[in-house]
Amino acid sequence: MPNKTVVLAYSGGLDTSCILVWLKEEGYDVIAYLANIGQDEDFEEARQKATNLGAKKVIIEDVRENFVTEFMYPMIQADCIYEDRYLLGTSIARPCIARGQVKVALKEGAEYLSHGATGKGNDQIRFELSYYSLFPKAKVIAPWRMESFIEKFKGRTDLFEYAKKNGIPLPVTPKNPWSTDENLMHISYESGILENPKTEAPRDICKRTTHPEDAPDKPERFEIEFKKGVPIRVQCHSDKKSSDKPLEIYKHLNEIGSRHGIGRIDIVENRFVGMKSRGIYETPAGTILREAHLDIENITMDKEVRKLKQYLSNQFSQYIYTGFWYSPEGNFVRESLAKSQENVEGIVQMQVYKGHVYILGRESKTSLYNEELVSMDVISDYNPEDAAGFIRINALRLRENTRLRQMTEKMQ
Amino acid sequence: MPNKTVVLAYSGGLDTSCILVWLKEEGYDVIAYLANIGQDEDFEEARQKATNLGAKKVIIEDVRENFVTEFMYPMIQADCIYEDRYLLGTSIARPCIARGQVKVALKEGAEYLSHGATGKGNDQIRFELSYYSLFPKAKVIAPWRMESFIEKFKGRTDLFEYAKKNGIPLPVTPKNPWSTDENLMHISYESGILENPKTEAPRDICKRTTHPEDAPDKPERFEIEFKKGVPIRVQCHSDKKSSDKPLEIYKHLNEIGSRHGIGRIDIVENRFVGMKSRGIYETPAGTILREAHLDIENITMDKEVRKLKQYLSNQFSQYIYTGFWYSPEGNFVRESLAKSQENVEGIVQMQVYKGHVYILGRESKTSLYNEELVSMDVISDYNPEDAAGFIRINALRLRENTRLRQMTEKMQ
Amino acid sequence: MPNKTVVLAYSGGLDTSCILVWLKEEGYDVIAYLANIGQDEDFEEARQKATNLGAKKVIIEDVRENFVTEFMYPMIQADCIYEDRYLLGTSIARPCIARGQVKVALKEGAEYLSHGATGKGNDQIRFELSYYSLFPKAKVIAPWRMESFIEKFKGRTDLFEYAKKNGIPLPVTPKNPWSTDENLMHISYESGILENPKTEAPRDICKRTTHPEDAPDKPERFEIEFKKGVPIRVQCHSDKKSSDKPLEIYKHLNEIGSRHGIGRIDIVENRFVGMKSRGIYETPAGTILREAHLDIENITMDKEVRKLKQYLSNQFSQYIYTGFWYSPEGNFVRESLAKSQENVEGIVQMQVYKGHVYILGRESKTSLYNEELVSMDVISDYNPEDAAGFIRINALRLRENTRLRQMTEKMQ
Amino acid sequence: MPNKTVVLAYSGGLDTSCILVWLKEEGYDVIAYLANIGQDEDFEEARQKATNLGAKKVIIEDVRENFVTEFMYPMIQADCIYEDRYLLGTSIARPCIARGQVKVALKEGAEYLSHGATGKGNDQIRFELSYYSLFPKAKVIAPWRMESFIEKFKGRTDLFEYAKKNGIPLPVTPKNPWSTDENLMHISYESGILENPKTEAPRDICKRTTHPEDAPDKPERFEIEFKKGVPIRVQCHSDKKSSDKPLEIYKHLNEIGSRHGIGRIDIVENRFVGMKSRGIYETPAGTILREAHLDIENITMDKEVRKLKQYLSNQFSQYIYTGFWYSPEGNFVRESLAKSQENVEGIVQMQVYKGHVYILGRESKTSLYNEELVSMDVISDYNPEDAAGFIRINALRLRENTRLRQMTEKMQ
Predict the structure, then answer these.
(1) Domain count, chain B
(2) CA separation for the pair C302, C314 (Å, rounded)
(3) Residue-wise pLDDT tens digits, D186-220
(4) Reported ipTM
(5) pTM
(6) How far is CA D243 from CA A357, D220, D247, in A?
(7) Could you confirm whether A362 is annotated as catalytic?
(8) Where in this chain does the record put each Arginosuccinate synthase C-terminal domain (chains A, B, C, D) (predicted)?
(9) Is C13 exposed, middle or buried (CB count within 10 Å of its CB: 0-12, 13-18, 19+)?
(10) Residue B130 is part of which domain span?
(11) Are residue B28 and residue B142 in the same domain, yes or no?
(12) C395 CA: distance to closest CA in chain B (Å)
């Protein structure tokens, strides 16, 4: 059947392997698309597996560099954070993968796009809104929302059975009693035994970062240099190792952060579909970069612009979380926020130690900090009597309010 | 001269002692008001000193309990933070002290209020806006803004000379090359050698918290119970020590946090008067409580209410920082935010270790978390096909936008 | 079949009559619920019709008083407006009707709720979110979204055929080439020939308000008195007619506004489902009340509280438009905004003339306006030199920014 | 004394003439700067007068075109409005005049800038913040805030005496019992008998617009074409008159609006200095343009971008009102908002009649309105069943909230 081609976001794992085979059974030509976004994966093995399972084509793309510069950098510029805690490590990967899929679909003339995300989560939304936004005529196949598929695959046993029957290699390591998502920015752990929000996570759940108690007993010092709100250089003070290319910088900071147990959180968050879920995340470089950027930003950015930026950043975080990366509003805030970063440059001195990030100092050629002006020992241009007027004018409204409200109260 | 009485916010230190004597010289009767807000001070010695210096009256008031329940609790409920980092430990103390002063002024029939805050800082504003709001007819004497005073006291040497001449006891310990402010919530360090934002703070600058590197090698576990968004119980898991009264709870958490080096930050912030300044703050209990409250809040609060709360909280933080605690807008947000906390209750399991706070788990009788609903293994009431419709309707606007913008672009 | 009872939001018109019969055919017992929210309807005729069509029960409820006090009053307090123009006349009626339906369902033990709203509009959402919020176990039948129903009723001809076959009385007047929704607050006109946003609406489309060109040649003057942000009295100056009960006040203002062609708009708006639609609305009393309330509010409310109120009001308007009247966030803003109205009281002098509303003057016992303070001829307590300090401190940041940005630019 | 030169914002009226002479008495060389921003003034007579009074130089500059394109256009793009009612006609003129003054000061090497604004108003702030921002080293002379000046000129009698003594021509027409400010955008009336907010303004107070009752009995129709959010053409339908240059367009719309009594308001507003004041404003073209722009914007702008725009626009209006046109935050929002206007283009059909503006229809090549999609008669691509899923997912949170809150309540 011509053109019934589907581009599947293939991970190499059991689920999407079963989906690949199932899609074929349903009569589709399947192009397996696997984006390298920094996950721990044997890509050649994955290619072989998909080919063996009958994929018409297997496309493996290393998008790590783009993932850093086009997706993570705008988030760093904006200091994005969802509900005051979550750094959006999974959320940001979805539009990056979806874009890759759409590019393949357009090139190959495929109408269908498919993914292995569940029907209760955020990822289905992030994938599909990206599909629809970049490719309005896309048709989506989301097996985990389709009754016929769900009926067939009620639990892991069914998947195993199906795998055995269809020559899908079974995972060699036993599955953890939780699920995991991984990319350059973070690893997440959720569901399974973690679904009870009271249950403490197992001590060794985190794969990327050293447990803080096992981290080095000596702090590690380094500096990050920013230009236009993004890191352009990282340098460690002990080993002098220095990185100055986006992907290298990001990986370098991941190493530092991982070594010292940085960026582990355990939270309950609000999903877009209206339910609360519990997640455990580790985001070493992301955590360091947010602290560093907040610091260099505040010495170079006007305070009222900062307030606007904070509002827009909060909106931007919502958009990213809910899947609206590719959207008119996403584009608008991205461009506006980028504007705000023109002068955000300088060097931040930092230290990590046993799970915590410390800022030690900062300097910037575009600093708006005026040491002389702020000094208690220098009067300079500043006339303290001005402050008296400033306060009295600010107080005018408060005094009137108290006076008149008291008057009213007495009168009644 | 009748009624030329001034109530001075007296600290017991050199500056306000000199101001006390100077005010007398200027012809005022001086009432020294010293609020115990948890600073490290010998209050009886301070009383004696003020009396010796000729204060007409010395009033020392232990307001620690009120400081916790009336000032810190609303901040905890709101998750207040200024510019994403500062927990407002100095800001919140000012209206508390100012209220004490105004009460004394009204009782004693004094028209004048005075304080020792500098002319470049935020504290002068926080003191005086509180004065004016609570006592619209107040007259303010801010010596550090008055030319005659500044002329007389150009540097510390002048203060020392004046002190010697007027029998003001000199500090026995040499002054640090920075200035400090202290209360139950935090200690701040700024100015002096810290004015250069690049200069790293001395290793042992912090007085309250143990240096993280010197903190215990074993994590400490405890739980905090909340009711209506404020802590009602703290219990350590090792020593079983438990506290359930506001001041006790706060002190208990300060102990835990101090022991483990919690809540140290080094930031550049935007002062209300328009300059940037650098501050180092330590806020052990405040840091723990913010993390704990964010956690219990997110499991018990609706997500859309949370967004509103976040906006109001951000405004509230601005008001507190800029001195508008006593203001119509301050009252409005305080009441609104309190409303949002009716169901914020439950127990958070926590751990501190070497400078970092960890959430381990949480439980709540008023939880909106539905383990069955979120479970990937249970369909329950949730129909995954609904999500397809949800996504397609959300995508409608995006698809139209892409389609029409592409059309427009082609046409042009 | 026990308990397969459905409560239908019955309007008395052709569509819901067909739905009533169709529901019966589908095996439901139908309770017809008809809320009197001020539409122009012969309610007894409607009752007879529904009974004749086989409704198990017909419940007609006059909810006009509640509609005014529980639904419109919070909107008046908040100055609600959607996208700067739409006064939400249709939006606000839906939760009011839905609540009536749910009450009946609970009382009668019915599980099902049904309505005649289309599948592309906002009303389906407003009805159903209200149902689900008030009655979480509700089951919804929305015929205009069901393939079987849509297939059967492809156009008006099908409805007419079905009506004839089933003894449903046909409308005596020919249908306008647009659709209409009506209640005490407004009448809306949309779809049909109005779907082309360029097409001018027919001159005589509006049923409630006189065409401005046909309105009286003399302005009409009246005053509205507010208490706690809601009107408590309306008095005309010419005929001395006065009203002081909620429903009477609202009807009185509708009369005044209708006579003078007040409150007609023609807009394109953004529906919740993501499409733009064009609507023509007439909202006479609502338009007058919004102007009057804005005016009395601004003389009695602190300016910073006003900013918060404006933000919350904007959110509230979004919630009402998108159907979240009954929701945690809706409750939260309603309560917060009500708080802000404690002192919003006084009398506004107004005039209407040929389609426009004018404010002539206002007075209030709780006014924060201080005539003496603002007067250019009186210095009073105000020291103009304070303004100099106020300005200089506000300028500090601006001057620094210019100075340092220029320096930076020169250096580069 | 070299370089003690002051650039005075000269209006040609009595006040600034007295200030001119007084400044000379105080030892300054005075450069009189008079900007033509569309006020009704005999500029040559003013030049002569200033020269006669001893101005070292008189500079009269026609900045009307710039006033429209650089100041009003960004406001039109943003739909600016202060406190929901005031169109900022006076506010926006100040930075325009101040910029002219600063340019002269820089060119002439003058250090001082002066204006005739009072010490209680907003204009002093708008002038001076603009001065300081554009010229950080500026020194400001604000006579109406200086004790020596105020002492000398306690009332109008003193001004008259001084004028007579110094050869300053007295106004030939008796002064109205209120004060006025005028420019191309609007005329304002305040103070004097208008200070009592209850007092109705005299029938014939407005100078620019015809009283609505005296306006033509026939409506007038015209269309406005927009491109990038600003008007590029106005055409009347009756007389076919058409304008397509910024200043011409603005004047043309002022004519239309003035003829029909458009844009008159009577409000109480909150001044930046903390007091409430009452003002009467007439803004004919500004009122028409805001309505037209809102309309064309809503058919061409994505709804979520619109929400962001609305927030930023509200902030922008605050900045303009409080004098922060030239500021980092002002620049930021101006640029962001301009971005949002890229596709805001099309033609709006309008009508004015007896004081009211009506939108009749609109069309746009960049429209996001899809007539087919919204049509109730066409299914097209839209699947109504999607709406069911959309609603149920949106309801999930509401149902859970009701269910769990009820459970909690029962349990307690």
Answers:
(1) 3
(2) 18
(3) 999 999 999 999 999 999 999 999 999 999 999 99
(4) 0.96
(5) 0.97
(6) 62, 16, 9
(7) no
(8) 178-399
(9) middle
(10) 5-175
(11) yes
(12) 8
